[in-house]
Amino acid sequence: MPNMTARSVVLSVLLGAHPAWASASELIRLTADFGIKETTLRVALTRMVGAGDLIRSADGYRLSDRLLARQRRQDEAMRPRTRPWRGDWVVLIVTSVGTDARTRAGLRTAMHDRRFGELREGVWMRPDNLDMDLGPDVAARVRVLKARDEAPAALAGELWDLPAWAAIGHRLLDEMTATPDIPGRFVVAAAIVRHLLTDPMLPTELLPADWPGARLRGAYHDFATKLAQRRDPTQLVEAT
Fold first, then answer.
1. Which of 68, 115, 143, 162: disulfide with 93, CB 3.0–4.6 Å?
2. Residue 13 in 3-state DSSP?
3. In sequence order, which residues have a C-beta less than 8 Å from that of residue 98 and are 6 or more positions away?
């Protein structure tokens, strides 16, 4: 298991907590599970306040506005809003990619973040079952079309490596079940979050059998809830 720094533990805990706040004593109790000394934690908290990650108040620490915005983005990405699928696909045809490598890489990242798959260079597709905002930067560089396909499941298989994604998901579920200690489960939970951010969020009709997406979300929710209760046993905090 990789070493967890005080900063990474505190940020992970608060990004998964609603409200994103904890007292110093709660953070001391949580980070002790990771072998982090109280003096180390207090130094880290002081530095995080100075860096604008946290805001200190009389009763504890909360995420700064910048990190609250990151929490909202994470929450939305973990559980994107879906709607019934009627067979249509959204097709984005790239009309302007920019001349420098950074701009082109940024556009590709934006496409992946919005859960599009690339059929061929400059052609990105996904089922039209998500409420999404392309954002002005992407919208200015693409033409948006609607299409239908006679073999939509096969098309989904071309756009995403679904067996590989599912295999990683099942492995993470097994690791979460097999890991008994809080630090180990914490690391697995972080890996689950990263994996879920790449879930293409396909309609049920296009998913392979035994797709682990819902179970991964449930496993993360259960762990985040237990971690919140460990932070403050008298309070239930809604986890993402």
1. 143
2. helix
3. 104, 107, 141
Q: Residue 86 corresponds to which tokens in the numbers above? A: 């009627």
**Could you tell me the pTM of the whole model?**
0.83
Q: Which residues pair with 21 in a beta bridge?
A: 62
With 50 as the cut, is the pLDDT of residue 98 above it? yes
- β pairing state of 123-127 and 89-94: antiparallel
Q: Does the structure show a pLDDT above 80 at 227? A: no
Residue with tokens 């496993």: 219
Pairing of strands 89-94, 54-57: unpaired
Burial class (CB in 10 A: 0-12, 13-18, 19+), 185: buried
Question: Dihedral angle at the C-alpha atoms of 210, 89, 72, 164, nearest 10 degrees?
Answer: 30
Taken as a whole, the chain contains a residue count of 240
